[in-house]
Amino acid sequence: MGKNYIDIENDRGEMLRYRKHINGRGLIAHGAKVHPSAIVESGAYVEPGVLIAAGAHVGRGVWVESDAVIGQNADIAPHAHICSGAAIGAGAKIGVRTQVGMGARIAVGSLIGDDETIADNERVATDRKGLRLAA
């Protein structure tokens, strides 16, 4: 049986230890909290301070930066990038290769399409078809 963690050096020369999540084998940094029922697929990185709620799904190749929050049953499609301090509401869906900026807030149940960029500190709410609602 192979080891269940990997050490990676960050940009500042510090070594960070990541463990493989039981559901999906994605890499979870020490200091992140991921509910056991969440799925973090292989190739995804979850940085320190992140909170991922029950039933959330983090796709292959997703990068969730420090202090971000992923709500219950949220779905993050492959290769998305969730920046530091961003919050994804419960049941929200984030599309393939979409970037959610630092401190951005995605409302509960919102649908963000593929290849979109949500600006830093932007607040977004959509209907079930992905049409943006007035803030």
Automatic annotation (TrEMBL):
GO molecular function: acyltransferase activity
Top-level taxon in the UniProt lineage: Bacteria
E.C. no: 2.3.1.203
Record keyword Acyltransferase present: yes
Keyword vocabulary terms for this entry: Acyltransferase, Transferase
This protein's record includes keyword Acyltransferase: yes
Protein name: UDP-N-acetylbacillosamine N-acetyltransferase
Organism: Microbacterium lemovicicum
High-level lineage: Bacteria, Bacillati, Actinomycetota, Actinomycetes, Micrococcales
